[in-house]
């Protein structure tokens, strides 16, 4: 089985950027910034970037490039008993993909609804009642919402097509097409936002620092959370992507480019978002804080309100915004599927087409849960537990494996420096061994504390036990069971480690 490779370094960087740049950059980041000290939030944000985000990104690049495989293969090379961790992370990506595609289906629907602002004046009622048809509680599943299922099915078909084409002809091609267009649309949206009445009001809310907020532990926890989730680390994507690079690849430089480009993108996009929020607040005669919302509310309730108030070209800017969500989300969806596809191919000796069909087919079936009228409740619970526990705990175990169990972190540093123009210093092993696991452990403990004080989202305990803790248990057990299966292919020339 010949290992796939990227066509160009530029293609790899765009694919990695496409993985990192997602829905969280466009609509999660602004609300996190506003709620955690506004301009002052940049201090813990950059601390988190250089003590967790970039170090883990380098770790995943080095693991994938040195050992030439997906997560399970790489981890069992570090320690035979740790293959299950790679399956844990790959299954987490598989679960995220199942509901991520549903959110993209909403964005596709709203691209159509942008023509003539079909959501009307009451955008909140339209989204939750008319479009999603949300039931009265988590215990009421309701029927299938066909207006949600159809766009989701269309996007699944497109994802199948891209993934069947492989790393170079599929993933790289999609990234080269979508990322430049995405950046261009965000630039245009931001420029237009800056010209709106009240834009300065929004920018003041964005940049005015509240340094008192830095004394709150949750602000620092949220900074680590934002950086960690936005870089697409912790579910084997960057391990898999790096394994497709040629032997001579500047890993450190590529890592810095991807990390800083991702952060610059969300910082710049937030200028446009806050300008638009300032415009909406001015039109409604309220403060900016009264129109800021979370990820889903910002995307499908607040922004339609902004588009309704636009002085002209409403439909055009509505389409541009939701197509931006689509492109940002689709390149991330591709990267969520690839770790599992590569792992299945290596473990079971399947063709790429067969692996895509198995993994994406199963994930598409799972996504049906979220197109029911009560699906939003399940999506919310699954998303919270998978992100805050499934990803973060597995990342802690990953750095413990590299830094303490296998003691390979110094070897991995040498590998990065041997193939890179930009060298990383002695700070990196120290951060990986101590600072990163401690900071991520603080995130987990903080979330457990909040769970102890109050059940997440006020949901019934049974629903949190089943779709939260229960799902996490299934993921871990599944990883352990798959590890028991023998590898279909033994080490071969295409798997030889890249010597340092």
TrEMBL record:
Q: Which GO terms describe its cellular component?
A: membrane
* Top-level taxon in the UniProt lineage: Bacteria
Q: Which Pfam families match?
A: SNF
Compartments, as annotated in UniProt? Membrane
SUPFAM superfamilies documented for this protein: SNF-like
Instruction: Could you list this entry's UniProt keywords, alphabetically sorted.
Output: Membrane, Transmembrane, Transmembrane helix, Transport
Origin species, per record, is: Planifilum fulgidum
What topology does the record note for this protein and the membrane? Answer: Multi-pass membrane protein
Write the protein's name: Neurotransmitter:Na+ symporter, NSS family
The portions of this protein that span the membrane are 12-30, 42-63, 84-108, 144-163, 175-194, 223-244, 256-281, 316-337, 358-379, 385-405, 426-449, 461-482
UniProt cross-references to PROSITE patterns, sorted A to Z: NA_NEUROTRAN_SYMP_3
The principal localisation class reads membrane
């Amino acid at each position: 089985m010949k290992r796939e490779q990227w066509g160009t370094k530029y293609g790899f960087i765009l694919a990695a950027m496409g993985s990192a740049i997602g829905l969280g950059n466009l609509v999660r980041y602004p609300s996190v910034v506003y709620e955690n000290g506004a301009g002052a939030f940049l201090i813990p944000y950059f601390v988190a970037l250089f003590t967790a985000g970039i170090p883990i990104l380098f770790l995943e690049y080095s693991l994938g490039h040195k050992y030439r495989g997906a997560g399970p293969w790489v981890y069992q090379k570090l320690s035979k008993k740790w293959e299950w961790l790679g399956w844990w992370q790959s299954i987490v990506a598989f679960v995220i993909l199942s509901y991520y595609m549903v959110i993209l289906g909403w964005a596709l629907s709203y691209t159509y609804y942008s023509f003539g602002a079909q959501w009307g004046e009451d955008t909140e009622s339209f989204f939750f009642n008319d479009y999603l048809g949300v039931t009265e509680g988590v215990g009421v599943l309701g029927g299938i919402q066909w207006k949600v299922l159809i766009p989701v099915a269309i996007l699944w078909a497109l994802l199948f097509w891209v993934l069947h084409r492989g790393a170079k002809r599929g993933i790289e091609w999609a990234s080269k097409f979508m990322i430049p267009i995405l950046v261009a649309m965000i630039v245009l949206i931001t420029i237009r936002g800056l010209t709106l009445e009240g834009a300065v009001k929004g920018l003041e809310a964005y940049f005015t620092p509240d340094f008192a907020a830095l004394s709150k532990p949750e602000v620092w926890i949220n900074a680590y959370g934002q950086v960690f989730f936005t870089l697409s680390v912790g579910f084997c994507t960057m391990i898999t992507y790096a394994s497709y690079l040629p032997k001579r690849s500047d890993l450190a430089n590529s890592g810095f480019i991807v990390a800083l480009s991702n952060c610059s993108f969300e910082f710049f996009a937030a200028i446009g978002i806050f300008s638009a929020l300032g415009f909406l607040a001015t039109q409604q005669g309220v403060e900016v804080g009264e129109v800021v919302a979370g990820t889903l509310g910002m995307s499908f309730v607040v922004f339609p309100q902004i588009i309704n108030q636009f002085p002209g070209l409403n439909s055009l800017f509505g389409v541009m915004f939701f197509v931006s969500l689509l492109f940002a989300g689709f390149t991330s969806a591709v990267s969520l599927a690839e770790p599992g596809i590569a792992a299945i191919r290596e473990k079971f000796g399947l063709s790429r087409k067969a692996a895509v069909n198995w993994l994406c087919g199963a994930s598409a079936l799972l996504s049906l849960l979220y197109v029911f009228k009560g699906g939003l409740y399940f999506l919310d619970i699954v998303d919270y537990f998978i992100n805050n526990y499934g990803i973060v705990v597995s990342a802690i175990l990953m750095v413990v494996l590299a830094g303490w169990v296998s003691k390979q972190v110094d070897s991995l540093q040498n590998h990065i420096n041997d193939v890179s123009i930009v060298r990383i210093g002695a700070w990196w092993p120290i951060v990986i061994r101590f600072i990163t696991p401690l900071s991520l452990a603080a995130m987990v403990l903080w979330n457990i504390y909040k769970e102890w004080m109050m059940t997440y989202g006020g949901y019934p305990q049974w629903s949190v036990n089943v779709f939260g803790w229960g799902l996490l248990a299934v993921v871990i057990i599944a990883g352990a069971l798959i590890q028991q299966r023998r590898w279909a292919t033994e080490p071969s020339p295409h798997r030889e480690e890249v010597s340092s």
